[in-house]
Every structure is written in structure tokens, then in C-alpha cells.
Write a structure and sequence with these properties.
Keywords: 2Fe-2S, Iron, Iron-sulfur, Metal-binding, Repressor, Transcription, Transcription regulation. It holds the Pfam family Rrf2. The chain contains 6 helices and 2 strands. By secondary structure, the chain is mainly α. Helix 2 crosses helix 3. The chain is elongated.
Amino acid sequence: MKRDSKLSGILHVLLHMAEYQHPVTSEKLALLMHTNPVVIRRVMAGLRERGYVHSEKGHGGGWHLTCDLNQLTLADVWRAVGEPALIALGNRSESPGCLVEQAVNRALDDASRQAEALLLARLERVTLAQLSRDFHHHYPAETTCIASNPDDKQH
């Protein structure tokens, strides 16, 4: 079953950005995520529209955070990146003729709605500041991390 990692990826990027004292280019963020800079720009667009990040062009430009990590929840970021599926559970057929499959679909749909509501409620309670504190608690300043040492290629 394919999982959507867009939310996880952008949270990763945002936490790295929080470690920098200057704007970070799409190219550098793409290196962190092992992806193409175009992918970074596309995902960052939703965050920019909501005022969570800003980009500056030219020499010394790049992306920077424009929000308080204490106020930004995982649910806020989820909404900004287009509300990707939270639960990767689907029906075999969306319009089955079989009454048994209809019963299965109703049960799975109901369970999925309840699980998504619970997960979204949890995402509403977790801020990026909490994730940052967790990161700093588990990885002291001496740990090699691209965010703390922008020229280091380790992650």
C-alpha cells in the first residue's frame, strides 16, 4: 500500500529551516529531502499562500519561516500542503453491486472517517515548536546535522 509522505517531508523541511538564521535555497532544501528543487518550490507554495514561509529572490535569497513555531500545528501544515490522505485505506470498488461488498464499504468508510477525525484532532495539538524541542532533546548541538552545519552533506 502506497503511503503519502508529503506531510512528513514538509515537516522535515520546516524544522531544518527553523535551524537556519538565514534564508535557505530550494536547492539546499532539495538536497535535504533527496528530491528536485522544483518539488520543494511546489510544496512550499501552499505554505507561502498561508503566510508560513516567504521566499526572496537573488543572491542571498531563499525560503525563510515567517510564523511562530509555537502557533503552527501539524494540522495547519497538512492543510497548507493540500490535505493529503491521512488514512491509506480504500474500497475495492466504489460502487459495488454486491450487497456484501456494500456492507464492507460502509464499515470501512465509517472506520476511516473516525480514524481520520482522531488523527486530525491529534495533529491540531502538536506544534512545530514541540517537534523542534524533541529534535534538540534527542540530538545535542555536537551531532552532525545539515541544519546546524549548512556546509556538511551528512543528515
